[in-house]
Specification:
The complex is a heterodimer of chains A (about 290) and B (about 500). In chain A, about 60% of the residues lie in helices and about 0% in strands. By secondary structure, chain A is an all-alpha fold. Chain A folds into three domains: about 5-125, Cytochrome Bc1 Complex, Chain D, domain 2 (Orthogonal Bundle), CATH 1.10.760; about 145-240, Orthogonal Bundle (Cytochrome Bc1 Complex, Chain D, domain 2), CATH 1.10.760.10; about 250-290. In chain A, helix 3 packs across helix 6 (about 110-125). By secondary structure, chain B is α+β, with helices and mostly antiparallel strands. Chain B has one domain (about 1-75, about 135-465): Alpha-Beta Plaits, CATH 3.30.70.20. Chain B is about 35% helix and about 15% strand. Chain B is built from 22 helices and 14 strands. In chain B, the strands form six sheets. A four-stranded mixed β-sheet of chain B has the order 11-10-1-12, with helices on both faces. A two-stranded antiparallel ribbon of chain B has the order 2-5. In chain B, helix 17 crosses helix 19 (about 440-450). The longest helix of chain B has 22 residues, at about 395-420. The radius of gyration of chain B is 24 Å and the shape is globular. The two termini of chain B are about 40 Å apart. The chains are: A mainly alpha (about 290), B alpha+beta (about 500).
Chain lengths: ~290, ~500
C-alpha cells in the first residue's frame, strides 16, 4: 500500500534535518567543552569557586547586574588585554580581584563565534547542579614533608616524571637551587603559588597548563595528579620561604664557562705547542744573535 | 717482472752556470698566476746552502719521505686524527719566502730630494709594503754564507777542519743544484694524499696532481722530502711540476730543459721493474744506490723487451729507451747519482757530480793561482767527497769517487787526443783505474760536450691518438679539440 501523504513526507524531511542539525550542534558542543577544558579550566571553574580567575557560574547574570551585556563579555573573551588597556572600569575591577593582578591571556585562535559558544556552554553548565567543570581531580590533602621532598626531587629531575616530560629545572628556577640555579627560559617559580592563587590554583594550572610552551610539552606527556601534588607541595614551601633564586647563578655559570673555555684552549695550546714552529726565521735570527754575542 | 716506462732526467752539474734561465722559463709558463707567485717548480740552489724552502733536506724538521720500514714519516692513520687541521711539519710561508713585486710608481711620484727614489717592495700576498727578508735564492752564490751555507745539512758528517777549509777565504767553493720534481718511483706525495688526487702516470711515470680531486689537505707538502709540491693559496689546490707533459706529448722537451743555456739537462726513457719497488725502498742505506740501479732494466735484454711488450709498452717507447741518454749516464757509465736516495722515494732525476777543480792553493802566506796538476787529484777537490756523498749517494763516498774518477779520466783522455801533451801511459792507467775504455771515454765526451738536441732529449712519442681512440674517433677529436670551456680549479669541493 503506497500512499502519497505530503504532510508525512515533509515531517520525515524535517526530522532528518533536525537530527543532522542536532548532531552538528552536539559535535560543536563537545568541541567547545574540550576547548574550555584545555584552555579555561586551569584558571576557571563553573560552580567550584575561584582559582586564578573567578568562578564562571552565572557569569552572564552577574555581568548583567553590573550593566554589562553579553556583547561586552564576548569582546572581553576575545581580547581581555585590550579591554583593560582601554580603561573599562568593570574590566579593571575584575583584574584587581585576581591574585597578583594577573591578566587573562588572549587566546590567538579566539573568534567571535567561539566566544559565543563558550558563553552558551557556561550558561548551560551554570544551570546544572554539578557542572563537569566543577573542580579538577586534584588532591587537596595537606602537604607533608615527604611530599615536599618528592616534589624537590621531581623538580630537579633526580626522579623522572612518569609521563616522560622534562624536569622543571631545565627551564625554571626557584630559591635554594644551588650555585648554578635552574633554567632561565621560564619564569622564576619561587612565588608562583601567590601568582596563581594558592596551591589549588597552581595544581589546577599544572593539570592542563594554558601557556603555549608548557602546553606543547605536557599535552602529550601530562603530569600525574600525585606528581602535581608533590610539585605543588615543593613550590608551596619555597613560596613560604620566599627566598627568590640566587642572582649570582648566571654569573657563576658564565664564569665557569669562561674558565672551561680558557682551560680547553690552554690544553690545546699545550698539545699542539709545535704549531708555530718555523725554520728560516730561527735559523737566520738565531745565528745573528749568536754572532752578536 | 712488471716492466714499465719512466721518463727520467740527468742534470750534469759540471755544466750548470747557475743562470736561473730554467727557473724563469718554468715560471713564465706555469706559475705566473695568483697564488703561485711563491712557487718555483724549477729552482736553482747554491750548494753548500740551505736551499728553498730553507733546509728542505733536513727531515728532522720536515719529516718527508719514507722510513726504512716503508712507512711515511710525515703522517699515519692515528697521527692524522690529532693533526687533521694543521700539519706541524708543514713549511710556513716564511720558510719559502713572501713573494713580492715593486711599487714602481714610487720612482715617478717621489718628491724631489737628495736621494734617488726607489721602488718599494710590495707583498704579493697582502698587497702591503714589506721589508724583504728572504727570497727563493737568497743564498745565491754563497750570499750570507755564515748563516745559510754553514747550516747546510749535508755538512753534517764533515770534520771541523773540513768545514773550516770549505769556508776559508780564497778557498770558498760552491756549485749549483737545479731542482725540479724527481717524478719518483716511490713517491711519498702520492702515498700521503687522502683524496687520491696525486697519481703516477702509467705510460711515462710522470707524477701529476688532479686539480679537481685535490681537497687542500696539503698532506703531500710535508710528505715530499724534496718539497716539490706547493699549495696554491688562491685556488686552494696543490700544484707541482708536471714535467711540461703537454710539451712531452707533442715531442718537445720540457721548458726548463729546452731553455737551458749550459745544456746540462738530459731526458730519456728508462725501463724499470715495478714489482721490486717496495723491496728496494726498504733496503739499508748503503745498498740503496745499487738496488735502485738494479731496478733499471737493460732495454736490449730480450727477456726485458718481452716483458715490456707484454705490459703494453709501445714499441716506440722501447726504441726511445734504447737511445736514452739517461740510461747511459745512470746505468752504463754510472756517472749520474740520485739526490738523497736515503729519503727512499727513489727519485728518477740523477745528477752528474761536479769536479770543482782547484783554482788556487796556499803556499805559505801567498796564494798560488796556477795549479801544478792540470786536473787535480779528486781527493784534493775543494768540495769534500763526503759532502757530495751525503747529497748524491746516500752517504756512499765510493760511488761519488767512481763518478769523479771517470770524469777525470775522460778529461785526461781527451787532452791526450786533442792536445797530446800528456803521457799516453798515464792516460791508459787512469782509464783503467776509472773502469773506463777509450771508446767509453769518447762516448762520454761526445754526449757531455757535443750532443745535439735530439741526443739530449729522446722523448718517446706520446701516442695520444691511441689514448683518444679508447674514447672517440681520433679524427673527430682532432677537429673538436680546443673548443669549449676549460674549467679552472675552484676552492672547495
Amino acid at each position: 500500500m503506497q500512499t502519497h501523504c505530503p504532510i508525512r513526507r515533509m515531517m520525515c524531511v524535517q526530522v532528518m534535518l533536525l537530527a543532522s542539525f542536532l548532531g552538528v550542534r552536539a559535535g560543536l558542543a563537545q568541541e567547545t567543552a574540550d576547548y574550555f577544558r584545555t584552555r579555561c579550566s586551569s584558571c576557571h571553574t563553573i560552580g567550584a569557586g575561584r582559582l586564578t580567575g573567578p568562578d564562571l557560574k552565572n557569569v552572564v547574570e552577574r555581568a548583567g547586574a553590573s550593566g554589562k551585556d553579553r556583547e561586552w563579555l564576548i569582546r572581553f573573551i576575545q581580547d581581555p588585554q585590550a579591554m583593560i588597556q582601554s580603561g573599562d572600569a568593570y574590566a579593571l575591577k575584575l583584574q584587581r580581584e585576581t591574585p597578583g593582578n594577573a591578566v587573562m591571556p588572549t587566546q590567538p585562535d579566539m573568534t567571535r563565534a567561539l566566544a559565543g559558544s563558550l558563553l552558551d556552554l557556561i550558561e548551560a553548565e551554570s544551570k546544572l547542579e554539578r557542572s563537569q567543570f566543577g573542580g579538577a581531580p586534584i588532591s587537596l590533602a595537606p602537604f607533608t614533608p615527604e611530599d615536599v621532598q618528592l616534589g624537590r626531587e621531581l623538580f630537579r629531575g633526580i626522579r623522572p616524571l612518569a609521563g616522560g616530560g622534562p624536569p622543571c629545572i631545565s627551564c625554571h628556577t626557584v630559591g635554594g637551587m644551588g650555585t648554578l640555579g635552574g633554567g632561565r627560559l621560564g619564569p622564576d617559580l619561587t612565588l608562583v603559588n601567590e601568582r596563581l592563587g594558592g596551591p589549588k590554583g597552581l595544581s589546577t594550572w599544572l593539570l592542563s597548563p594554558p601557556t603555549p610552551t608548557m602546553q606543547s610539552l605536557f599535552k602529550v606527556e601530562p603530569l600525574k595528579p600525585e606528581e602535581i601534588h608533590s610539585v605543588a607541595a615543593f613550590l608551596n614551601q619555597s613560596a613560604q620561604q620566599g627566598v627568590p633564586a640566587d642572582m649570582s647563578g648566571p654569573l657563576t655559570f658564565f664564569l665557569l664557562g669562561l674558565g672551561g673555555a680558557i682551560g680547553g684552549l690552554a690544553l690545546c695550546d699545550g698539545i699542539w705547542s709545535k704549531r708555530f714552529r718555523a725554520v728560516r726565521h730561527p735559523l737566520v735570527h738565531g745565528q745573528r744573535e749568536q754572532g752578536d754575542e | 717482472m712488471n716492466v714499465r716506462a719512466q721518463i727520467s732526467m740527468v742534470f750534469h752539474l759540471d755544466k750548470c752556470i747557475g743562470c736561473h734561465t730554467c727557473s724563469l722559463a718554468c715560471k713564465n709558463i706555469w706559475t705566473d698566476r695568483p697564488g703561485t707567485e711563491y712557487m718555483w717548480w724549477n729552482n736553482v740552489e747554491t750548494k753548500p746552502g740551505t736551499g728553498y724552502p730553507t733546509l728542505w733536506e733536513d727531515q728532522q724538521r720536515y719529516r718527508g719521505g719514507w722510513d726504512a720500514e716503508g712507512k711515511l714519516k710525515s703522517t699515519g692513520k692515528a697521527w692524522i686524527v690529532a693533526n687533521i687541521f694543521h700539519h706541524p711539519s708543514m713549511p710556513t710561508m716564511d720558510d719559502y719566502y713572501e713573494p713580492w713585486t715593486y711599487d714602481y710608481q714610487e720612482l715617478f711620484n717621489a718628491p724631489e730630494g737628495p736621494d734617488q727614489p726607489t721602488a718599494r717592495p710590495i707583498s704579493l700576498v697582502t698587497g702591503k709594503h714589506i721589508d724583504i727578508e728572504a727570497g727563493p735564492n737568497w743564498d745565491d752564490d754563497l750570499g750570507g754564507s755564515p748563516v745559510y751555507a754553514a747550516n747546510d745539512p749535508n755538512l753534517a758528517a764533515l770534520t771541523p777542519e773540513q768545514r773550516r777549509q770549505l769556508f776559508a777565504i780564497e778557498q770558498l767553493v760552491f756549485f749549483y743544484l737545479p731542482r725540479i720534481c724527481n717524478h719518483c718511483l716511490n713517491p711519498a706525495c702520492v702515498a700521503a694524499c687522502p683524496s687520491a688526487a696525486l697519481y703516477k702516470r702509467g705510460e711515462d711515470g710522470i707524477v701529476l696532481l688532479d686539480q679537481k680531486r685535490c681537497r687542500a689537505w696539503r698532506a703531500c707538502v710535508p710528505a715530499c722530502p724534496y718539497k716539490k709540491t706547493y699549495y696554491n693559496w688562491s685556488t686552494g689546490k696543490t700544484e707541482k711540476c708536471i714535467l711540461c707533459f703537454p710539451r712531452i706529448e707533442t715531442g718537445q722537451a720540457p721548458a726548463c730543459f729546452h731553455s737551458c743555456v749550459g745544456r746540462i739537462r738530459y731526458l730519456g726513457v728508462l725501463l724499470y721493474d715495478a714489482d721490486r719497488i717496495h723491496e728496494v725502498a726498504t733496503m739499508p742505506d748503503e745498498e740503496l744506490i745499487e738496488a735502485q740501479r738494479s731496478l733499471i732494466l737493460d732495454p736490449f735484454d730480450p727477456e726485458v723487451l718481452a716483458a715490456a711488450r707484454g705490459n703494453n709498452v709501445p714499441e716506440s717507447t722501447i726504441e726511445a729507451a734504447q737511445k736514452s741518454p739517461v740510461y747511459q749516464y745512470v746505468k752504463v757509465w754510472k756517472l749520474a747519482l740520485p739526490p738523497h736516495l736515503e729519503f727512499r722515494t727513489l727519485p728518477m732525476l740523477f745528477y752528474v757530480p761536479s769536479m770543482a777543480p782547484v783554482m788556487a792553493s796556499r803556499q805559505g802566506d801567498t796564494l798560488d793561482h796556477l795549479s801544478q796538476d792540470l786536473f787535480h787529484d779528486i781527493e784534493q777537490a775543494r768540495v769534500p767527497i763526503r759532502y757530495l756523498a751525503n747529497l748524491l749517494a746516500a752517504g756512499s763516498e765510493a760511488r761519488v769517487r767512481y763518478a769523479l774518477r771517470k770524469q777525470k779520466a775522460v778529461r785526461w783522455h781527451r787532452r791526450s787526443v786533442t792536445v797530446g801533451d800528456v803521457d799516453a801511459e798515464v792516460v791508459r792507467r787512469m782509464l783503467r783505474e776509472a773502469d773506463c775504455s777509450p771508446e767509453e771515454a769518447d762516448a762520454i765526451y761526445r754526449l757531455t760536450a757535443l750532443s745535439t738536441f735530439d741526443e739530449r732529449f729522446v722523448i718517446p712519442p706520446g701516442h695520444r691518438e691511441m689514448g683518444v681512440e679508447t674514447q672517440q674517433d681520433p679524427l673527430m677529436h682532432k677537429q673538436q679539440a680546443g673548443f669549449g670551456f676549460i674549467a679552472g680549479p675552484r676552492r672547495g669541493l
